[in-house]
Amino acid sequence: MRITKQYGFEAAHRLESHDGKCANLHGHSYRVEVVFAGNVNTAGPSSGMVVDFGDVSRVVNAIILDVDHRFLCAEDNVGTELEKALKGRELEYLDITTSTAENLAEWFATRIQHFHLSPISPAVTLESVTVWETATSSATWQRHLTNPDA
Fold first, then answer.
1. Structural domain that includes position 27
2. Contacts 24+ apart (CB under 8 A), 102-109
3. Number of folded domains in the chain?
4. 36 CB contacts (<8 Å, ≥6 apart)?
5. pLDDT averaged over consecutive 10-residue blocks of the chain (150 residues)?
6. CATH number of the domain enclosing 136
7. What pTM was computed for the model?
């Protein structure tokens, strides 16, 4: 069984080496969709659920707090005039090369897996994370594409 939950946040970014308009400072109303898979619990407080949506929200919202209304400063922005100008303000340094939707989807997946819901539901796995930059543009991290043994 799979469950899906969506979240949103606002952030600015810049693709330093892009040869188009995304090289300019701009922002998005990002949407993040997470999909978990597991068996439906048959006993306890989560009976009838794969995992409680509230437990999923506790994990994802903690991560979103780090990026909401921030400048997403990827490695390609470090040392630039923009980074220097924003220093000390609402910067979130991300350990990714550039803040594309693809890299952000993987960044979210890594952090969600770090929290891992196993104490709540041992058989739950993160299946995918989709990051939407706009209503028509998204990138999806999928477990089976990044870890063939999973």
1. 2-146
2. 102/139, 102/141, 103/74, 104/30, 104/72, 104/131, 104/139, 105/129, 105/130, 105/131, 105/139, 105/140, 105/141, 106/141, 106/146, 108/32, 108/34, 108/60, 108/63, 108/141, 109/141, 109/146
3. 1
4. 2, 3, 50, 51, 56, 117, 124, 125, 126, 127
5. 97 92 94 95 87 92 94 86 80 89 96 71 86 97 70
6. 3.30.479.10
7. 0.88
